[in-house]
């Protein structure tokens, strides 16, 4: 019983850490992966670096976006879920 009471604070800290840090990060990563897989030609997107454009071509890991200045080839992971959602919500 004495050893259990010694480890209880550590166990409680791990549970709190899991629910406030690890679980939300896993959920966010799952949402981003789902967003990347649901992209299609013609979607308006914003990259994490701030480029606005429309998807012109899709490949397995890359995407070509059409911007005002031409076409850019980027990794799918460079597209921001939050910024793209905010852009599409305005329109």
Return the CATH class of the largest domain.
Answer: Mainly Beta
How many beta-strand segments?
Answer: 4
What distance lies between the first and last C-alpha atoms, to the nearest angstrom?
61 Å
CATH topology of the largest domain: SH3 type barrels
Strand line-up of the largest beta sheet: 1-2-3-4
What low-confidence regions span 5 or more consecutive residues with pLDDT below 50? Answer: none
At CATH level 2, the architecture of the largest domain is: Roll
Count of folded domains: 2
Rg over C-alpha atoms, rounded to the nearest angstrom? 20 Å
Strand-residue fraction?
Answer: 15-25%
Which series of helices and strands comes N to C? HEEEEH
Largest sheet: 4 strands, antiparallel
Shape: elongated
Membrane topology: Single-pass membrane protein
Family: Belongs to the YajC family.
Organism: Flavobacterium phragmitis
GO cellular component, one term: plasma membrane
Overview of the molecule:
The protein is α+β, with helices and mostly antiparallel strands and 91 residues long. The protein folds into two domains: 1-38; 40-90, SH3 type barrels (Roll), CATH 2.30.30. Helices cover 51% and strands 24% of the residues. It has two helices and four strands, in the order αββββα. The protein has a four-stranded antiparallel β-sheet. A hairpin with a 5-residue loop joins β1 and β2 (52-58). The longest helix has 36 residues, at 2-37. The model has no long low-confidence stretch (mean pLDDT 91).
């Amino acid at each position: 019983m004495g050893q259990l009471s010694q480890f209880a604070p550590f166990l409680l800290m791990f549970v709190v850490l899991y629910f406030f840090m690890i679980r939300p990060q896993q959920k966010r990563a799952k949402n981003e992966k789902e967003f990347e897989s649901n992209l299609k030609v013609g979607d308006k997107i914003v990259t994490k670096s701030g480029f606005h454009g429309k998807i012109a071509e899709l490949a397995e890991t890359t995407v070509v976006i059409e911007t005002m200045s031409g076409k850019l080839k980027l990794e799918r992971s460079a597209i921001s879920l939050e910024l793209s959602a905010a852009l599409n919500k305005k329109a």
